[in-house]
Amino acid sequence: MTAYYRLRKRSKNGNGDVSAAYEPLTASQGAWNPHEQHMAPATGILCAELEAYSPRPDLRIGRINLDIWGLISLEPFTIETRLLRGGRTIELIEARMLVGDRTLISARAWRMQTCDTSQIQGIEDSAIAHYDSMQPWDGMKQWGGGFINSMQFKTNPQQRRAGNGVVWMTNSMDMVEGQRTSSFVKLMGMADTSNGIVPRANPREWIFPNLDLNISLLRMPQGQWLGLDTRQQYGSDGIGLTSSVLHDEQGVFAHSLQTLTLRSAQR
Length: 267
Prior knowledge:
By secondary structure, the chain is mainly beta. It has four helices and 16 strands.
């Protein structure tokens, strides 16, 4: 298998709304259940549709908010993409993943006007060690599923513990069969993995799926490797938070947040 999804059909209506029908392939399989998609490639395919929707050279995506409406079933689906709020300097676009009339994920992205701000550029987040200096890591195999099996991971054991750590990752897959995958789609299609790289609890004893994924981009990412500097925190009444600083080979490019629902695996 060389891709996560296969495109079946694409159409556009008179309002400019786009509908694309996809078939999920084995590599998109999730970690919690064998009959669901992993949120990471699902994010990637939604981002591919957002990226392709009526692009403008003066705007780029600055924020993406994805809400998971329920189990992301491993069956053919449609993505419907539309403009919610047009404008000269900002636009709000939406992509929804549906099976029939049932929404699986809704994704909204703000596209923002770009300009030269290099004179005032500043990043406060610390750099992380390059993936070349880290060791191959098979710790993610505890999760299983087609998506995790498609991935390569690297870490430094001294820079990773339960609840906190740095992990690099990549894969050799296309997001859509027979189509070139941009760096943006490639790296967005791995970002949700952050919830599993430094679990604070044993996933055989506790489950902690995320309800959402929120990404704010300082710049568009480059390359094929994603580095996650991640913290996972649990509250005392069943709600948690996974937060990550996202890196590519050039440095920091984004922050992400995931809201978690915590419950015992025995219930």
